[in-house]
Amino acid sequence: MADGGASSFIFLTTALLVSGLVSVVLINQWGDIAQITAQETAAIEVQEATSVDFAGDPMMVDLDTTASPNEITFYLQNTGTTLLDSSTLVVIVDGQTVTSSIVSSLVPATGEWDEDHLLQVTVSDNGWSYQSGDDVSITAVVSSEVTNGYRGSDSMSVEVRLHG
Predict the structure, then answer these.
(1) CA–CA gap between residue 95 and residue 152 (Å, rounded)
(2) 8 A C-beta contact, residue 144 and residue 152
(3) What domains are there in the chain, each with its CATH number?
(4) What is the pLDDT along the chain (164 residues), one digit of tens a residue?
(5) pTM surpassing 0.70?
(6) Is 163:72 a contact under the CB 8 Å cutoff?
């Protein structure tokens, strides 16, 4: 009988050690999963808080035909809660990315691109031959400032009528 008790005690001790080790592994894995989930949640929060939209009358977008090349001027509004980074602005006019000239400035001129500021955007391209009354498609893509280590992005597309 004494041998049976010692064997049982050894098995019990071994089972407790193994279950303790498994618990440590599971707790570590749970911690890793919780950390990854928190990071993904933070990234999603920044993405959801990033939003941009067209500001103004899309049927009265300014076309300057006296400038060479012609210039189109429109306004974008930060409709989210994160600051937007105007240096990340990409503009697409009628399916073509504007690469030659994008000039942007805040309205009012001081501060950052938050929900209280508009961004005036003037774009031009040597290949354009637009006239007053032409309808064009404008798409703008922008990213937020880095917030909590993450950057959100948003885009807007609108059909506009040029007026010059």
Answers:
(1) 23
(2) yes
(3) 49-163 (2.60.40.10)
(4) 456 677 787 778 888 888 888 888 878 778 778 778 878 888 889 999 999 999 999 999 999 988 888 899 999 999 999 999 999 999 999 998 998 788 988 898 888 999 989 999 999 988 888 999 999 999 999 999 998 889 999 999 999 999 98
(5) yes
(6) no
Return the structure tokens found at 85: 């980074």
DSSP 72-127: EEEEEEE-SSSPEEEEEEEEEETTEE--SEEEEEEESSSS-SSTT-EEEEEEE-TT
The residues near 79 (Cβ < 8 Å, ≥ 6 apart) are: 51, 52, 53, 115
Characterize 142-153 residue by residue with b for buried, 16 or more Cβ atoms within 10 angstroms of its Cβ, and e for exposed: bbbbebeebbbb
Dist CA 79 CA 148 (whole Å): 19
| CB-CB neighbours of 8 under 10 Å | 10
Contact between 125 and 93 under an 8 Å Cβ cutoff? The reply is yes
* Tokens (6 digits) for 76: 């974008």
